[in-house]
Amino acid sequence: MLLLFFFLLLFQEVYFKNLSKQKQKEVMEKNGNNHKLRVCVATCNRADYSKLAPIMFGIKAEPQFFELDVVVLGSHLIDDYGNTYRMIEQDDFDIHTRLHTIVRGEDEAAMVESVGLALVKLPDVLNRLKPDIMIVHGDRFDALALATSAALMNIRILHIEGGEVSGTIDDSIRHAITKLAHYHVCCTRSAEQHLIAMCEDHDRILLAGCPSYDKLLSAKNKDYMSIIRMWLGSKEMVRVMRKKGIEHHPNFRAVKHVPFDQFIQLVAHAGCMIGNSSCGVREVGAFGTPVINLGTRQTGRETGENVLHVRDADTQDKILHALQLQFGKQYPCSKIYGDGNAVPRILKFLKSIDLKEPLQKKFCFPPVKDNISQDIDHILETQSALAVDLGGTNLRVAIVSMKGEIVKKYTQLNPKTYEDRLELILKMCVEAASEAVNVNCRILGVGISTGGRVNPREGIVLHSTKLIQEWSSVDLRTPISDALHLPVWVDNDGNCAALAERKFGHGKGIENFVTLITGTGIGGGIIHQHELIHGSSFCAAELGHIVVSLDGPECLCGSQGCIEAYASGIALQREAKKLHDEDLLLVEGMSMKKEEVVSAAHLIQAAKLGNTKADSILRTAGTALGLGVVNILHTMNPSLVILSGVLASHYVNAVKDVINRQALSSVKTVDVVVSNLADPALLGAASLVLDYTTRRIY
């Protein structure tokens, strides 16, 4: 029995060893070959080593998958910065190559010369190493030289901490490295979105968090009392401190280098950290230590609530005041830059890299219209707009030329639900856009005219009329623009009618005029000093709801005595039904089928044929409309009033009569005309597009 037990143990050990080898083989085969992934990690300074070291330890711990080559250059090899290459050796990493690339100097020219020197020396190193992939960190000029060399030598690049924003030349360097890199490891969600916006392939972006956080989040509980209290400063900072004699103060200590393990203990237990290092806005957040960030170097970086910015730190009082506010506070730990699990994610990401994939990187540009070369067909194209009119009954889409010609029109019944309506709009717009090519029209954008209150800045229908159901808080711009890849404008149907008159009708060249739509409802638009008036809450020109009687009929808006309650098509239909129910509508020369619905048209016909009651109703409606126009004249003092819609010709004389009787003499000279536009709603929707593309202010 004991022998059988040992046999089972031996079998289990052999089985799992073979399983591990099989998994290793599968990963290697996925990488496109049977050799380990050769990774070159190049580190330039102690700051980037603190981020790269955790990854290097992880790579070193899995020799069955990776071969690690370490290249050291930059300030690591400078005595003024503490010869920090030694800490890499102390971490038991073999340094393959040391490159002296820093040209002495503190100015911009020295940085440029250092980049050039690195570019001269790196090709020989990379030719000897022949890595499968190079890992580059951050935004230093040394890193730019590394990425440039690797890209030109067809070596894959993994960039750590791309997509971040700090507000200095570092941004330009960081984003330049991003464009050279094939793979990206970012620390925050915002950085990931920035990379996507920069057209990088989403499949090659890993949101891992900052590698240094893997160590930071477990560091504070260690014993720190034995760590010497040091203060870290640059060469220039040390010079200033010596000049001021600060180095002799017992509470200050200037040092070239503090080992990272000791440094994080210092910041973890400090009363406050002051400076302009990215460490202050990134790593220190892991401990909740208060930070005072000086100047604009880190402007744009995401920060926790522990960071207080003193961006124009030109006076001592500001810094002292900030210190009084921050010193000794304890803030919650911030995990903006990581959750402590970055390295396992990065190693898994490295293992997933397929070396058989083409080396040439591809950019994921947003969809745009195909570029049309400058040829005769393009020149002869008619600049046009897609116009959409959302009415209570019908949904119409048209191709409208710059001259106001309706080239092609499509009409469907307006669906009752939001989903069906939006689906039909998209379907009709796509069909019209395709047809535009056949009729030699170049579509510049989409204009939408709809009932209700509209926010034209955002392209949102805020509140709808009762005639269009499920049409409140509707974003029209986004889905249509996304589907057609065209700019989209949206406005109220009354405003669109006024725009149509301004561009194509009686209002062309008129500085101040008002358009009144007389249809199913009553609406309108106001043009003042050549511009459309929207009002502070996009409710201007609700002309149908001007009250002309305190005890008049009830309006659909809930009020009483509105113009719309007297003069709209719905109001006339209501009165026609009353007469019909009392058998007082039909007169000689009129007939109605049994199933025919009574409408405003029957009332108008009856009045023309001598029905005095019908005529009285129409005169009352015309008077109500005229009184509303008088109120408009006394408020806006336009030089022109344009009556539009199917009822306009029936009201124009009544409106003029009321103006002559009721208006002040100073406004009686106003012109009142009937619109000569066949389709003001569609033409107005087109004007939203065409006015903008011809640089009219809208």
Automatic annotation (TrEMBL):
Signal peptide: 1-16
Pfam families, sorted: Epimerase_2, ROK
SUPFAM superfamilies hit by this protein: Actin-like ATPase domain (SSF53067), UDP-Glycosyltransferase/glycogen phosphorylase (SSF53756)
CDD domains in the record: ASKHA_NBD_ROK_GNE, GTB_UDP-GlcNAc_2-Epimerase
Highest taxon of source: Eukaryota
UniProtKB keywords: Signal
Gene Ontology MF terms in the entry: N-acylmannosamine kinase activity; UDP-N-acetylglucosamine 2-epimerase activity
Keyword Signal tagged: yes
Domain UDP-N-acetylglucosamine 2-epimerase: 65-222, 243-351
Cross-referenced InterPro entries: ATPase_NBD, ROK, UDP_GlcNAc_Epimerase_2_dom
Name used for this protein in its record: Glucosamine (UDP-N-acetyl)-2-epimerase/N-acetylmannosamine kinase
Phylogenetic classification of the source organism: Eukaryota, Metazoa, Chordata, Craniata, Vertebrata
Gene this protein is translated from: GNE
